[in-house]
Amino acid sequence: MSDLKITKGTLNLPSAAVRLIGDHPLQITASSNRHLLLEVTGQKGDLQMAGRLGDIAIVDLLSFFNMFRKSGALHCALSGGDKTLFFQNGEIVFATSTFAEEEIGETLYGLGMLDREVLQGARQFASGVMTLGKALIDQGVVTSKDLWAATRSQVETIVFNLFAFQEGSFAFFDTRLEEDQVLSLSMNTQNLIMEGLRRVDERAVYMQKVKSLDAIPVATGKVPNDLDSTSQRMLALVQRGVADARELLRRSGAGEFDTLRLLSQLIERGVVAMEEAPTVKVEGVLGE
Q1: Whole-Å CA distances, 278 to 98, 129, 199, 214, 281
Q2: Residues 218 and 244: beta-carbon distance below 8 Å
Q3: How confident is the model over 83-113, as pLDDT tens digits?
Q4: In angstroms, rounded to a whole number, what is the distance separating the alpha carbons of residues 83 and 170?
Q5: CA distance linking residue 74 with residue 249, whole number of Å
Q6: What pLDDT is recorded for position 243?
Q7: Which of 135, 196, 247, 271 has its CB 3.0 to 4.6 Å from that of 163, i.e. a possible disulfide?
Q8: Does 83 reside within a domain?
Q9: Same domain, 183 and 225
Q10: Alpha-carbon torsion 106, 109, 110, 116, what sign?
């Protein structure tokens, strides 16, 4: 980020900041001879804390809010998108994300609850008039129970994926959620932290075997007698043929992390091999 200077009492902000703030009035929340913290006035929830990720790790932030039983919203501005985690008495109860792959429709698709054409149709049907979830329920594509389970999976994925970021900025506001927005997650915040850290480490190990989500899983013909039922279903999907590992992750319905783990185990045992995706020759002259 380029340096900012106050010239004749005027501070010129970067265009990106101006687009975010708009014409809302600002107030100085904190200042010293080394920093100046400005806050938009008249918004819901007061700013309690702000800083840069990297100087403060995600795990330390989440542990702090959990230890001191904080309630509010932690907004993280990251490379490629934003995430907001909502706390109630120190526990994460909801989360939102602007990352496309963490949208509820993509979560439902990733869990194998609908296909791409149905998802696109539901998005057009919703078209700003209603939420995508309500549109899918109204169309009979999913049940309320399906949507609740997918939303819980979505929130946990948003949290788990947050641990992969080492840079960005954060701000914590004392914004409260409405009661009907509060989710009961499958694990408390401390367990989410431990699981998130574990997944970052283990996913890197699994990907060493899988190599790429664009690679094609192929059955080798070897079928051990001691495969559990989940591994057998995974192998059956591979035997029927999938375009690539990414499609296998979606069709398994087990979620990305667990599917990568199972696929990695099948590769390690020689049951599945990964082949490079074939290259496609494009005819013609570039630019035509």
Answers
A1: 32, 42, 30, 10, 10
A2: no
A3: 999 999 999 999 999 998 899 999 999 888 9
A4: 10
A5: 30
A6: 87
A7: 196
A8: yes
A9: no
A10: negative
Domain residues for the domain of 232 are 211-275
Which two three-digit tokens encode residue 246? 């990414």
152, part of any domain: yes
- The token duo for 259 is 């599917």
Q: Please indicate, yes or no, if residue 27 is contained in any of the structural domains.
A: no
pLDDT in tens, 34-57: 888 888 887 777 899 999 998 899
- Name the phi and psi angles at 245, rounded to 5: -65, -35
pLDDT of residue 20: 79
Q: Which residue has the tokens 């667990």?
A: 258
Domain for residue 147, yes or no? yes
d(CA 279, CA 201): 31
Which phi and psi angles does 188 have, rounded to 5°? -80, 175
Cα gap 144→150, rounded to integer Å: 10
The first and second tokens of residue 188, run together, are 């408390």
In the DSSP assignment, the letter for residue 187 is S
Q: Are residues 63 and 190 in the same domain?
A: yes
CA distance 269 to 254: 20
Domain boundary among 207, 224, 258: 207
Q: CA 104, CA 257: separation in Å to the nearest integer?
A: 17
Average pLDDT, the chain: 89
Are 54 and 192 in a shared domain? yes
The string of DSSP codes covering 199-244 is: HHHHHHHHHHHH--TTSEEEE-S---TT--HHHHHHHHHHHH--SS
| Helix intervals (H) in 3-143 | 15-21, 58-67, 104-110, 116-126, 132-138
| DSSP state at residue 112 | T
Residue 55 to residues 47, 52, 82, 133, 173, Cα–Cα distance (Å): 19, 6, 18, 38, 19
